[in-house]
Amino acid sequence: MSAGEREKVAMFRYGVIAGLVCRRAENRHELTLLRQEILSKEWIYPDGSSRKVADRTLREWVGRYKRYGLDGLYDGLKIDRKNKGRFRAITADVVKRAEQLRRELPERSVKTIVEILKAEGVEILFSERSLQRQLKRLNATRCKIEKTDRLHQRWEQEQANDLWHGDTAHAVWLPDPSNPNKMKRTKLIVFVDDATRICTHGEFYFDERLPSLIDTFSKALLKRGKPRRLLLDNAFIFHSTTLEVMCAELETELSFCRPRRPQGKGKVERLIRTIKESFVSEANRAGFTSLEELNQSFFGWMEKNYHQQKHSELRQTPDERWQIDVSKLQAVTPEHIRRALMMRAKRRVQEQTGTVYLDGMEYSCSKEVAGLDVEVRWHVDLADHIEVWLDGKFVEIARLSQRPTTLPHSIAIEEENYPTYESAKVRLEKLRQMSGLEPISLRADEFLTTVEFEKVIARYLGREFSATELRKLTEFFKLHAPLRRTQVETALIKAVSVKGAALHLRYYLEAMESSLRKGGK
Predict the structure, then answer these.
(1) What pLDDT does 45 receive?
(2) What percent of the chain has pLDDT over 90?
(3) Which of 194, 211, 227, 415 is most buried (most C-beta within 10 Å)?
(4) Cα dist from 428 to 3, 319, 505, whole Å
(5) 364: part of which helix (H) or strand (E)?
(6) Is the peptide bond before 439 cis (omega within 30 degrees of 0)?
(7) What are the φ/ψ torsions at residue 373 (nearest 5 degrees)?
(8) The CATH classification of domain 164-328, taken from the options 3.40.50.720, 3.30.420.10, 3.40.50.11270, 3.40.50.880
(9) For residues 324 and 343, what is the distance between their CA atoms, to the nearest angstrom?
(10) Whose CA is closest to 10, among 53, 70, 68?
(11) Domains of the chain: which residue ranges?
(12) Could you give the CA distance from residue 400 to residue 284 in angstroms, rounded to a whole number?
C-alpha cells in the first residue's frame, strides 16, 4: 500500500471516530447514542465499498488514537486480531438482511428471522444467539427500534468552541492589483461559533483558494482557541486532504452539511447576510483601493457593530455570551498551529538533480531521496524551506534554491461599477480608525520555528551543520516544541561558557534538554 493510500485509510478512520474523540459529551447516555449512530451508519470505505463499522473495530480505532494519536490510525501500527484470516460464520450481507427483516416488523423473533433467511436460500452456519448479538450491536432489538428511529441529535450547542460554522461569499469590488484599470471582486471567508454567534474570524481575499481558507482558519485559532468540531458546506474549497489532515492534527472533528439541507448552514448564512446588508453595501461605495483598507474597516465593524450588539436569540451580545465560557476554552500555541496548518502535496524528487518543484519554486533535497515519490509539507508564510516526508516519516528539510521568474496572470472577470458615496466613506473610515486592530501574524517572536531554532544554534556555535546534524536538530525541535527564544539562548550561553563551542552537537542538545526539564516550558 502506498503512502497516499495509507493516509487515505487513516483519514477515513479518523472521520469515523472523530465524534467520539473530539466532542464534549455531557453524560454517558449521550456518548452511547453517538456510538450507536456511528455503528448503524453505512460508511463509504476508501476502496469504494459501502458497509458498517463493527463495534470491535470501532473500539480498536478509538483505543489506538488515544494511545498513539493520528499515527495510530495508519496501517503501520495496526494490531492484528487473533482471528485474522479465519472464516466468519455470519457475513455482512446476512446481518444486513436480518436487520432489514427486524426493522420491517419489530415483533419478529430471532427464530422467525432465521426461518425467513432459510426460505430465502441462506445457508445457516451460525447460532441464533450469534445473530441476536449482531442485532443488539446494531440497536435492532425489538424493544428499541421504534424509540431509536425517533432520536435526533441536539443541534444547539451549549458551550463556546463546541462547533464552528464556515462559509464563503462574493463580496466587495476593488481595483485589481495586477491591473488597476480593472475591478476585481473579493471573496469573504468567515467562521462563526455556534453557541455564542461570535465571528471567530472573517477576512476578504482576492480568491477563495485553499491558502486563503487556511489563513482565515489559523487566525481564528489564534484569536479564539481550538474548536471541537468544524461544520462546512460542500463547496470545493473545503474538500481537501490538507484541511482534513489539519483538523485531525488539531483533534477537531471535520463534518459537512448534507446536500440540499440549508438548515445546517443557518447561523453562518445569517451572519453573511448581516455582513452584506450592513457592511458590504456600504463598502462598495466607500472608495476602498486595497484589501488592507477594506479588512481594517471590516474588523472595526465586526467589533463595534456586531459583537457589541444584542443578538435577538441570545438576548445578549455575542461578546457577553463568549465571556461566560472564556475560561473553558482550549488555547493552542503558534507553533502547534503552524505545524497543524502545514500544506501537503505529493511530489517526485528529480533523479539527476535531487531537486523538487513546488508552485514554481525549486528546492534542493539530499541524494538519498533522489528519484523517489515523497510528500512535501510547507507553511504558506514560510516559502524558504519545505519538509520532506517518506512513507509517513520525516526525512529532511529542503531549502529554496531558485525563485520563480514569472508571476501568474490575473483572470479577467465581469466587473460591476459602484459610485463612491462620501457618507459611506466617512462611516467606514471611522470604523477603521476605531478598530485599533493589528494584522494577525503566525510568526510570533516568543516562539521559534524550526528554521529559527536552527539559526539560533548555528549563531551561538559559529558553524554550519551537516545534513545529519540538521535532522537531529529537527527531531529535537519536534520533540520539545514549542520552544521560546529565551529558553534556547539561555541554555546555549551556559553550555558554551562552560565547554566552549567546538564540542559535538549532542552535548549542546543534552544541555538544552536538561535546562528545559529544570526550568519547564
Answers:
(1) 92
(2) 25
(3) 227
(4) 50, 21, 56
(5) strand 361-364
(6) no
(7) -85, 120
(8) 3.30.420.10
(9) 35
(10) 70
(11) 3-77, 92-149, 164-328, 342-402, 450-519
(12) 40
Q: pTM of the entire structure?
A: 0.56
pLDDT for residue 151: 45
DSSP category for residue 366: -
Query: Sheet containing 382-390: which strands, arranged edge to edge?
Result: 343-348, 373-379, 382-390, 393-402, 361-364, 355-358
What is d(CA 253, CA 243) in angstroms, rounded to the nearest whole number? Answer: 11
Whole-angstrom CA distances from 432 to 151, 155, 301, 368, 516 are: 48, 36, 8, 53, 43
End-to-end alpha carbon distance in the chain: 40
- pLDDT tens digits along 187-203: 999 999 999 999 999 99
Q: Measured between alpha carbons, how far is 38 from 32 in angstroms, rounded to an integer?
A: 10
3-state secondary structure of 105: coil
Please name which of 374, 383, 377 lies closest in space to residue 340, comparing C-alpha atoms: 377
DSSP letter for each residue of 301-349: HIIIIITTSPPTTTSS-HHHHHHHHGGG-----HHHHHHHT-EEEEEE-
Average of per-residue pLDDT across 82-99: 71
Instruction: List the grid coordinates of 179.
Output: 491591473
196 closest CA partner among 301, 302, 320: 320
Residue 34 has pLDDT above 80, yes or no: yes
The Cα 401–Cα 385 span in angstroms is 9
